[in-house]
Design goal:
Layout (H helix, E strand, L loop, with lengths): L2 E5 L3 H12 L3 E5 L11 E4 L2 E4 L8 H11 L7 E3 L2 E4 L4 E3 L3 H11 L4 H23 L8 H25 L4 H6 L7 H8 L7 H12 L3 E3 L3 H14 L3 E3 L4 E7 L2 E7 L2 E4 L2 E4 L3 H8 L8 H9 L5 E9 L3 H8 L3 E4 L16 H4 L2 E4 L1 H4 L9 E9 L3 H6 L3 H19 L10 E7 L1 H8 L34 E3 L10 H14 L2
Parallel strand pairs: 1-2, 1-13, 2-9, 6-15, 13-19
Antiparallel strand pairs: 3-4, 5-8, 6-7, 10-11, 11-12, 14-17, 14-18, 15-16, 16-17
Helix pairs in contact: 1-9, 1-18, 4-5, 4-8
This protein binds flavin-adenine dinucleotide (FAD).
The site of flavin-adenine dinucleotide has 39 residues, from helix 1, helix 17 and helix 18.
């Protein structure tokens, strides 16, 4: 039996914790926040529930297998996403790639030939990735079952790597630019989907998840985290909340425990299930245990964009909100501006960008008080926007946050007329709020930059390594993969659990 300490109780930490206690190890999770979950969590305000990180998950095979292995599959109810996309040119809902294509072709009939060309590439990456995105991943199995789970990678792998090689460093903007004239609405559609300037594999994954395999947790993400935390404790694991780890302790290049609240906790293995940069740049007691060049690479690496979110509790019944939204999620973009997420100086960014409206009470009326409804408005932010949200001047920060909240509510009224008059509760989060609650650098929503030209994990073949230059320090978070996300957090957790015999 090993004595394992896990830093962080997001999906990665909770999954690793559960797999390890099930194997009979002594496991202690330290969580700095007052509730478990990290980016798979939520909060209640005045009877309204809001998600405090992701709104759902893709790659359902990975999540299903995890919940089954941990023995809680029957405790988590899921609901398939229901999206509507609105722009001045089109307004449509879809539940398949074909339906998505049909709607775009109908909105832009003059671009038929260019759309044919664009989708020919998407169809290829979609078909190649589908078998290994939708099912569980090989690291979730052992022995022959692992080999069986590997088969789609073996059969599709060659084609996948050929596509990666062909597109290499091309971003979604580059790919859109090959078919559509920059500066046109149709070009902007394909620049604005997913993360800014993402690579071909992320585009493939994006289309797969939005058209085929994206799920909400019917009772909210916090319920998923609570179920995982509950099972972990039931099996004998210890979860300390409000217990930030201040230091990861090392001796001669080997992790030997952590320090939290002035106390030392010994461990045979430490799993970092939290932000990668903080782990090496702030938590490690002896940075000399990592080669200087590696530390410099970690310091310089760019992270994924943060998000600005407005949380609204509405006096309206669900029926009134549904009349306007007609879906759980509405994605809106004016498609009128070229957005630059690498530019922190565009003061009008939040008056020009696309945004999503997401209603949890439409998914589950119990997530709002009787007869009332809720809405979240989400818009991606350029990193360090406006002097990093004027973070050094409290009043200026508050004023900027208030202005962006008000701007987004005003813009949402084009889709939900009268929205402002129905507000009973309102609040907002900047990327700095996300950072404060989860300690993810700059409020990075999904690990490292999604731009293939800014890779932290270099090399052609995406592979996952949980081992670090510090012996007995493993990575058990989504940061184990370039683009983060729940599937990567889970994959990291399984790899850690396999490594600890
Ligand atoms: C708005 C938004 C939308 C997203 N959408 C999607 C999506 O659609 N699909 C998808 O797959 N992913 C999505 N993601 C990303 C996904 O939620 C994350 O990649 C994933 O949940 C990360 O899990 P994790 O366990 O690696 O880390 P986190 O969830 O970040 O958990 C880390 C935990 O560690 C704790 N911690 C940090 N430092 C310390 C310390 N020193 N001591 C103790 N505890 C510490 C934190 O408080 C936190 O609880 C989204 C994220 C956001 C914010």
């Amino acid at each position: 039996m090993k004595n394992v300490v896990i830093v962080g109780s997001g999906t990665g930490g909770l999954t690793a914790g559960n797999l390890l206690v099930k194997k009979g190890h002594k496991v202690t999770i330290f969580e700095s926040h007052s509730a478990p979950g990290g980016y798979t969590a939520g909060f209640w305000k005045k009877g309204f529930y809001f998600e405090s990180g992701t709104l759902g998950y893709e790659s359902s095979g990975v999540m299903n297998k995890t919940l089954e292995d941990i023995g809680v599959a029957d405790q988590v109810r899921r609901v398939r996403k229901k999206d509507r996309w609105i722009s001045p040119q089109s307004d449509f809902a879809f539940d398949s790639l074909d339906a998505f294509k049909q709607a775009v072709y109908a909105g832009f009939p003059e671009s038929r030939a260019a759309l044919d060309g664009y989708f020919a590439g998407i169809d290829k990456i979609y078909a190649v990735m589908e078998p290994f995105v939708v099912g569980p991943v090989p690291m979730q199995f052992r022995g022959f079952a692992a080999f069986k789970a590997m088969l789609p990678y073996i059969t599709g792998g060659r084609k996948f790597f050929q596509i990666l090689k062909k597109y290499k460093d091309k971003t979604s903007e580059d790919i859109a630019g090959e078919f559509f004239a920059p500066g046109t609405p149709i070009y902007r559609i394909f620049c604005e989907i997913g993360y800014p300037k993402m690579g071909i594999d992320s585009l493939g994954g994006f289309f797969l998840s939005v058209t085929k395999d994206y799920w909400h947790v019917a009772d909210g993400m916090q319920q998923l985290a609570n179920v995982l935390a509950g099972k972990f404790k039931e099996r004998g694991g210890t979860l300390y909340l409000r217990a930030p780890v201040d230091k990861i302790l090392t001796a001669r290049g080997t992790a030997v425990g952590v320090e939290s609240g002035g106390r030392r906790f010994e461990a045979d293995v430490v799993i970092s299930a939290c932000d990668y940069k903080n782990t090496f740049l702030k938590l490690l007691d002896d940075p000399m245990s990592v080669p200087a060049a590696q530390l410099e690479k970690i310091r310089k690496a760019e992270v994924s964009q943060g998000i600005f979110t407005v949380y609204l509790g509405l006096a309206w019944p669900n029926a009134e909100l549904e009349k306007h939204l007609k879906a759980y999620t509405v994605n809106y973009s004016p498609l009128a501006y070229d957005l630059d997420f690498d530019n922190p100086n565009d003061a009008d960014h939040f008056q020009k960008c696309g945004f999503s409206l997401h209603s949890l009470s439409l998914i589950n009326p119990k997530l709002a008080p009787d007869g009332k409804s809720s809405l979240m408005i989400l818009a991606m932010s350029p990193t360090h926007w406006q002097d990093n949200w004027r973070k050094d001047d409290r009043e200026a920060y508050k004023a900027l946050k208030e202005r962006v909240k008000s701007d987004l509510i005003g813009r949402a009224e084009a889709i939900v007329p009268g929205l402002r008059s129905a507000i009973e509760y309102q609040d907002a989060a900047t990327p700095l709020t996300y950072e404060r609650y989860t300690k993810n650098t700059d409020g990075a929503t999904s690990a490292w930059s999604w731009n293939p030209r800014k890779k932290f994990y270099t090399g052609g073949i995406p592979k996952m390594t949980v081992a670090t230059p510090v012996r007995n320090l493993l990575i058990g978070s989504c940061w184990v993969g370039q683009i983060g996300g729940i599937p990567n957090a889970i994959a990291a957790a399984y790899l850690c659990a396999k490594k600890i015999k």
